[in-house]
Each structure stands twice: as C-alpha cells, then as structure tokens.
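pasting input
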Amino acid sequence: MKGTVYIYRKAHFSASHRLFDPALTDEQNAEIFGGCSNPNGHGHNYYIEVCVAGVTDPATGFVVDLKAVKQIMQERFLAMVDHKNLNADVDFLRGVNPTTENIAIAAFRQIAPHIPAGKLYSVRIYETENNYAEYRGDHS
Amino acid sequence: MKGTVYIYRKAHFSASHRLFDPALTDEQNAEIFGGCSNPNGHGHNYYIEVCVAGVTDPATGFVVDLKAVKQIMQERFLAMVDHKNLNADVDFLRGVNPTTENIAIAAFRQIAPHIPAGKLYSVRIYETENNYAEYRGDHS
Amino acid sequence: MKGTVYIYRKAHFSASHRLFDPALTDEQNAEIFGGCSNPNGHGHNYYIEVCVAGVTDPATGFVVDLKAVKQIMQERFLAMVDHKNLNADVDFLRGVNPTTENIAIAAFRQIAPHIPAGKLYSVRIYETENNYAEYRGDHS
Amino acid sequence: MKGTVYIYRKAHFSASHRLFDPALTDEQNAEIFGGCSNPNGHGHNYYIEVCVAGVTDPATGFVVDLKAVKQIMQERFLAMVDHKNLNADVDFLRGVNPTTENIAIAAFRQIAPHIPAGKLYSVRIYETENNYAEYRGDHS
Amino acid sequence: MKGTVYIYRKAHFSASHRLFDPALTDEQNAEIFGGCSNPNGHGHNYYIEVCVAGVTDPATGFVVDLKAVKQIMQERFLAMVDHKNLNADVDFLRGVNPTTENIAIAAFRQIAPHIPAGKLYSVRIYETENNYAEYRGDHS
Amino acid sequence: MKGTVYIYRKAHFSASHRLFDPALTDEQNAEIFGGCSNPNGHGHNYYIEVCVAGVTDPATGFVVDLKAVKQIMQERFLAMVDHKNLNADVDFLRGVNPTTENIAIAAFRQIAPHIPAGKLYSVRIYETENNYAEYRGDHS
C-alpha cells in the first residue's frame, strides 16, 4: 500500500523452558538440543516486538493506537507467559517445543485476531540479545 | 537490483512534543492520546536511522559516502529538531501532530531530495527503545 | 556493615525541561545552557536508578522487597514526572533549575523517607545514555 | 592502595528459578514473592560482572590477566549455573532462596578463593536490565 | 514460502582496518575516507548478524540448528577476522577495501555455501552501534 | 563533602592496538596476551566515561558545566586517540602497553589538570561491553 508506515512496540517477559522431543531419550535430546534440554529447565529474559503496518489516520497521525496494541499484547500473550514455565503453564504452547521459532508463530496467532485485518506485519521474539526469530504470518 | 547492499546510519536528538487534535477538548485529547497530551508537553531522546540501498562503487567500496549522509541528516533534519519543541519550533512539522509516524514521514521527505534518486530506502524514528516507526517513501 | 549487599532498581520516564536562570536574559541563558535553554523546551527519555544497601533477611533472601521499592518509586516520583514538563508541572522541582544534578537530589529526597532508615544508598538520573548524575544523600 | 585500578569482566548465563520459603504455603509465597514464586519456575538471561582491584604490573600493564579471570568465572560459576535450574541443579545454592542478592553472595564466595588475596572487589548479578545486586565480600 | 520464519544469530569480533584506494595519494585518501584512512589503521568492535529463513521442522521446532550456524560463523568467518587486521591478515578480503559494505558481502559469500541452499537470507555487519550494512546475496 | 553529586559524561572512540612486551618474543607475547598480541594489531570501539564530583552551584544547578567537560575530553584525549593506532600514533601512550588499565590511567592524567582541583573523581575506559577499567587518580 502506498505510504505505508511500520510501527513497532516492544515488551519484556521472563520465562523458563526446556527443549526436547518426547519421542527421544534424554541422551538423544541432549545431542540435538544441547544445554537447552536440561531436564529441570532454564530460562530467559525474552522480548516480544510487534509490528503493525498501514497508512496513518489523518486526524490522529496514528497507524494504530499503540496503547491498544500494548493492551492486546498484555492480555493475549504476556499475561500467559510472563513468570511462567513455557512447557507446563501455557495453553497455546501445549504440545509444542518452545523454540524461539515456535514462540514467535504462537504469539503471532494469539495477537493477529485482535488487530485490524491484515495490519499485523510481524512478530519477533528475542530469546537473548544474540538469538531471535521473526514470523510474518501463515500466508507469507 | 542484483547485489544490493543496505547501509544504515543512526543519530540522536532530544525534543519535546505534545500529541493533540486542536479540534478536540483537553478531555477528549487525554482520552485518545493519554499522558502524551499533557498541555505543557513532555519529551524524548529520539533516534533517527536512515537506510540507503544500492550497489557498491568498485573504487571506494561504498554504496554512498556515509560522511555525506551524516551531513545531510544534520543539515536537513537534526539542526531543526534537536533540543526543540516539535509542536512549536519545526517548520516542516507545522500543522502536523508529532506522532512517531508523522516524524518518520517528515524526516524521509526532508532527506530524500538530497540522496541520489531512488536510493533512500527507509527512515526509522525511535521514540523510546520500545516504540518506533519506519517509513519507506510515498510510493511503497 | 559487614556483608552488605547493594540492590538496584531502574525505571523509565519521559519529560521535557528548559534550563535557565530567571535572573538572566535569553541571550545570557543561551550562553550558559546552550540548546538546553531553548524557550519552548525540549525533552528526554530519562531513567532513574535507585540503590538500597543492607544485609539480607535470612527468611526471604531480600535486602528489601523490590516490589515495594518499585511502588515507592512510582508513587513518590514517577507519577509526578512521567509525561510532564519539569519546569511547570512538578511541585517538588518548583523554583529549581531541572538539571540532571537537581533532579537526582530531588528524587533522593522524595524517596528516602519511605525506605527503612539509612538504607537508601544512592539515586542516579540518566538524562541520556551519555550524561547522568548520582546523589548519595545530604550527609555524604 | 595508591594508584588502584578497577578492572571489570562481564559474562552471560541463562537459568530458571523459583523464589519461595519452604516453611510457607503457596498462597503465602505468592503474597511475598509475587510471580517469582510460580511453582513451575520462570527464568532469566542473567549477567555476572566481576571487579578485581589492584595496581598494574609494570611489565604487562595488567592488574590481573582477564583471560585467567574469564576461566575462573567459567569453571567456578558459569559451568554450574548456565542452562540450569537454580533451585534444583546447583550445589552451592542448595537450601538457599535464589534471589539476586543470594546469587551475588554465592558467586563472590565461589570466585574469591581463586583470585589473588584481597583483590576481588565486587560481584554484580543482573537479573534483568532493571534489577541487579552487588556484593563486596563478607568483611565490607 | 508460506509460513516462513526468520531466525537470527549475532556474534562479536574485534578488528582493525584502514580504508584507502592504493591508486591514490595519502592526501586524496584522507579527503575521501577521512579519519578512516589513518595509515596506521584504527579499529572496531564489530558485530555480525546472520539471518536464515525457512519453515520449521515439525520434530525439532527449528528452521535450522543455531548451534550449527554458530559453528559455521566461527569456522568460516570469525576465526579469520577476530583480533585481526582486515587489510593484512584476511585471505578473503585480499585486494578489497574493508568497508562495512564489503565485509558484509564477503561474510555472506563465506557462509552461504555451508547453509542449506537458498536459506541464508541476510548478513549484517555492525561497524559501530550507529553504522551498519546488510547484504542479501548476489541475486537480490 | 556533604551533598556531593557525581556527574558523568561518556564518549566514543575507535582505535587499534597491539598488546606486547618488546623484551619478549612473538611466541612469548602470544602466550601472555593471546589474540591481543597479533603483530598487525586489531581494534575496538572504545568508550571513555568521566566522572566529576562536587556540590552544585546554586545559580546554575551544575556541579560542572558538562559542555566544558565535553570540550576538555575532546581536546585532551579524543582528538589524540580517535581513529588512531594506540601503539604508534599517541604521544601520551609512548612506551606504554595500551591495556585498558593503562589507557584509563593515561586518560585520567590527560584530563585532570583541566578540571577544578580535586573534582575529577574517576575515568573509565570500556574496551568492549564486557571488559572495562576504572582509575580514580594517583592518590586513591
């Protein structure tokens, strides 16, 4: 769309996880997932960054009201994952290996229905400063 | 273009702003813009990040001389906004609500005429570490 | 005190300010305070960092409950300065030039009475990443 | 000591923890420790920062060989906590509530015996960018 | 590709460089490259950020095993450039002016053959926090 | 002094260096200094952070005019080290191994004579985000 502006909002959450495939032994998991398969889990200060794209509203100068985006991120994602164990405590990650990739996909699907259609451009999950994943939706 | 390189330059400025629609009352503005509509204004340490895209010059190894980009950013944007009030002091924001989106659009239009045609790829304005907007020009 | 632990909590606020001495002309103020004396003000994303020092409580492992410190910082300082004009909107800065130094002194005095006696070690105010001030109380 | 130089080395680790007092109920723990007492734990990207103080060696220009400090931090601390559960997996935290304060004390005691006597000045543990604790030894 | 996830890995290296065109005089080089043409060189803490794009493996939840990417970055790039002089010590930069642009192109070409075909999306080189370049391959 | 405020100013420079003891062989230097003794040098994005301590001036609210400190840092230190080789190009480091410690000591001595007597509290040199050194003067 001509004159598209991309607007970003970032937020923080703390969570623990363990990466493993239940079909494999602890030894096989350790070989594939390294320290990330430690049976008692470990954790991260994660960041989520949501990008909404569109043209600005002439009256407000906003693509979207970021206060509303902040509230959606809080209610549909952060409230379920902050200070939680991603393997045990999160309904929308049930049965999913909580890799950075899968958290990004799940976060996109949690948030998209509450943003005006087609405007959610991407969701990034930072596991550390040095590792992160971005998802732009099931159709791109 | 084949072999495109994207080169980025970031710079800092401090400014104050107030978000409001002059057609509304203070109460209506407070409802839409929250604390950002405080009548005496508030402020930010903004960052601007300019991206220029193209192929490298075989002699210099540069897409563009970043020293020149730095000077254009200084003369066409930073000199007008640093240590200023974005509502009162900036000609190219006159009559515009100084949202992050509108600052990004205005910055792009200030800088584009001074960069070789078609090479200015994007301008980002960071209002805080957690909120920022990107504009890629009127035709994209 | 033997076995002292220093515990820190950082938080963010956005505010605008103008540095000037009302006894001087605009020209004299510009000479002393530079761009910071712009009559319409400018602004910053400030950070405040509070340090509390003491021995840990054997039951909780805490020097102090940081959730309580967070609430004191919110009620006694952030609520008065976030999204405000430090020259016009803040009672405890009335008649004070809002330099980083003076904001640090004022913040220390706002917070100290609500922390167990003698335990507030220092308050830092970051005006930008590159400029900040620390105050350790009127007696040190 | 005259001419003292303070030299710092920072490193990262990921771990999970749960704050709770085993003498209390889950409800009482939730009241004191908030989200940090979630029974399945949560986690952080922690940083440890070690400071060694002394005069420089005239031949090398070093207070201490930071490569040696890096190795001590690795062998005596990081190897035991990185990608671990601080409640279940770490011998030197057995029976201790893994608050930031207690991790800093434990890290100091793990590292001090391997640094030339009296030269370990402080250990900081960053739980997040906004919360951290510093310990300077049992005698200060 | 539908359902593409972009996964990023960042790493650090320290190196020195001098920018200059051997066909020019020192004075001409100083005019074009400024302080960067100082004959004895200068240096940077560079960062490289590699992005791999693809769909996730249903068993592991990975687009790619980042431990493998980390090892490829180490063996094919970091081992040759960390703590080196980019003009004198690096075979794959022989005869190339070590601008940020050219380092990004060279890093992409070093790493691409070791990543599953078509999956290496981009390589970024950060020369400083404020200057960086991105390359997405010879065909885009 | 009662009511002391500590005020900090940070600035950036890029430089290359090689750590070595001229009395030793390349092999011996490699053993002591590791990659830092690479004969062609390597480099860093250094930061210098200057702290001045004192009481505030009642008229200005300043401990010291940071614009003046900025100029002293520029003229007495940054102009000599930015975009330079610390082994070859810097008079005040002649004959000194350019470790982080020694750069901090030299920077303190360069700047102290130009700050009101006794007010320069400390100088920090950051070699990377993870390694830095602080000096507080020859008498402390």
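fyi Chain E has a mean pLDDT of 95.
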